[in-house]
Amino acid sequence: MAQDLAGRVVVVTGASRGIGRRTAERLGAEKARLAVVARTADALDTLVAKLRADGVECEAFPADVTDPAARTKLVADVVRRFGGIDVLINSAGTASFAEFTDSTPEILRTVTEVNFFASVEMIRVTHPELLRSSLKGRKDGSGWRAAVVNVASTCGRVGVPSMSEHCGSKHAITGFSEAIRLEFAQFDIDVLLVHPSLVKTDDPAKHYIQHVGKVALDFAGAVSPEYVAERVVGALLSRRRETPVGRDAWWACFGKRAWPRYIRWLMRRKVRRFAERHAAAGSS
Ligand SMILES: NC(=O)c1ccc[n+]([C@@H]2O[C@H](COP(=O)([O-])OP(=O)(O)OC[C@H]3O[C@@H](n4cnc5c(N)ncnc54)[C@H](OP(=O)(O)O)[C@@H]3O)[C@@H](O)[C@H]2O)c1
After folding, report:
1. Which residues of 241-254 are buried (b: 16+ CB within 10 A; e: fewer)?
2. In this structure, are residues 246 and 254 in contact, taking their beta carbons and an 8 Å threshold?
3. Which atom of ligand 1 is nearest to the CA of 114?
4. Could you tell me where the beta strands, DSSP code E, fall in the chain?
């Protein structure tokens, strides 16, 4: 059943830039009431000012989502301000672009902490509010269902060289989402996955923990954050369970199931070619 987001309280993490910020802007057009979250307070303030100028009800909640105390306070503050939570969008994320052998245990932990544990724990702390929201929808006969959207990645469906830590964390959130989707069905809470391909975000090289991967990222074929935001909101409105965004994501989600050997061959060829080019550059 299609869901109307007007008046619904939506928490968007990772809203200071990139996909999260564009998603908040797009939700403003749906007349959702927005709680925007990230660590960079001034970037959130700029977003809030812009949205309010457009008549959107919006509040900034600066927080580090990897901090348990900050998460608990965040939910309490949002509930005090808006009276409840109807939707959680986990878009906060980080990445390291490097071969596994060039990385460190600390980087692996940081990537997993933000992309997996923080998203999961955000679901844990918001769950009572999401439950209340769905119960209200059941009682008033509106058919409203609360929802969680996890912005995963193509890396959540297929192995991508130079992104092994990212792949680990995104496969984890993908599997976790599929499991709780079944558990949460009894509460009328939908759990949705969005898998973007490579995205032309504000400054990817600046925001990656490391940027030394050998398999070059092809930003020419990347999708825009606005397009991803459109698909995130589209998934929420239609309650589409899994939304690949971009050609690579479609291949990772669906093509891989139909032609697994072909996809493996393509990926191996890509890595081999980059390794050959790397070796040639090193010997010249
Ligand atoms: N960009 C891509 O190519 C791509 C492709 C597929 C999937 N994705 C996924 O899409 C999501 C958004 O990516 P993006 O491209 O928009 O990345 P981005 O531009 O680097 O933005 C990441 C956002 O997460 C926030 N964040 C990071 N760590 C945080 C923490 N500990 N606590 C609170 N907020 C935190 C950042 O805000 P602060 O720094 O202000 O805290 C920022 O708002 C991520 O989950 C990413 O893995 C991205």
Report:
1. ebbbbbebbebbbe
2. no
3. 31
4. 9-13, 33-38, 58-62, 87-90, 146-151, 189-196, 242-245
Long-range interactions of 259-268: CB distance < 8 A, separation 24+: 263/158, 267/158, 267/159, 267/160, 267/161
- The CB of 19 under 6 Å from ligand 1? The reply is yes
Sign of CA dihedral 264, 268, 269, 271: positive
Answer whether residue 276 is part of any domain. Answer: no
pLDDT tens string, the chain, 284 residues long: the values are: 788 999 999 999 999 999 999 999 999 999 999 999 999 999 999 999 999 999 999 999 999 999 999 999 999 999 999 999 999 999 999 999 999 999 999 999 999 999 999 999 999 999 999 999 999 999 999 999 999 999 999 999 999 889 999 999 999 999 999 999 999 999 999 999 999 999 987 676 677 898 888 776 676 678 999 999 999 999 999 999 999 999 889 888 888 889 989 888 888 887 787 777 777 776 65
| 222 three-class SS | coil
Report how far residue 17's alpha carbon sits from residue 42's, in angstroms, rounded to the nearest whole number. 11
253 part of a folded domain: no
Domain count, the chain: 1
- CATH code of the domain containing 36: 3.40.50.720
3-state secondary structure of 199: strand
In a mutational test of the pocket of ligand 1, which residue from 153, 162, 219, 232 has the highest number of ligand atoms less than 8 Å from its CB?
153
**CB of residue 93 inside a 6 A radius of ligand 1:** yes
Tokens of 137: 């929808």
- Whether 31 is covered by a domain: the verdict is yes
- Does 209 contact ligand 1 (Cβ within 6 A)? no
Is residue 273 one of the residues assigned to a domain?
Answer: no
**Domain enclosing residue 122, as ranges:** 9-248
